[in-house]
# Entry
Amino acid sequence: MRLAVAQIITGADVAANLELIREYATRAKAAGAELVVFPEAAMRAFGNSLADIAEPLDGPWAEAVRGLARELNIAVVVGMFTPGAGGRVRNTLLVTGPGVDTSYDKIHLFDAFGFAESDSVDAGTSPVTFELNGTVFGLSTCYDVRFPALFTANARAGAQVNIVCASWGAGEGKAEQWDLLVRARAVDSTTFVVACGQGNPASVGLPTTGTAPTGIGRSAVISPLGAVMVALGEMPELAVVDIDPSVVEEVRGKLPVLANARDL
# Structure
């Protein structure tokens, strides 16, 4: 299966962000990708108001993404915001394309490093997997990557690939932690990990203020044994990679960590 990782940098303008998604999805399709993964907060970047742009999964922004996926005949994973409880929003991944239409609400909220995502975001409760052309994918968002149980739960539900959509916060040691975590989650779950983050706004001269996690780049694709197959820098970039899901069964025969795990 050929996948594309669209490391973009979004801003406050949801219409402009949608056009950016169109541009990168078009390029991914031209490169032969069956699936293109976009970052968390692709609808609107963190550091901007969210409640005023949140909309249901059948709202106009999501419908525009569906229309794009149909037009290009490509599956799209993209971060958006949907209405939550108590005036908050849900940090949602929309998955849409040929034969698939589902969503995942971020379970683990980023209340760390001086940022309180739970002030404005309502947490999801359930893992989500989906199937595309015979391959099963699990979904996760940013801070979720620090919680191995989600990745192993997805694997036990059949996932051969775990997707991580992120807008990672900058700071001392954060880049190194990201690199370590995406590789560790691949080995924990013996799945491929496709980790797509927002690019670093500073890399294109955009100012950043406050503690909002606006991205550091470093998107990656990791093998089920932790090998780095793709590693991007900080700037916007589209990467295309071929993966063989049948490798997962072979790896699990050699390294049966899921089968060997004990309920402690």
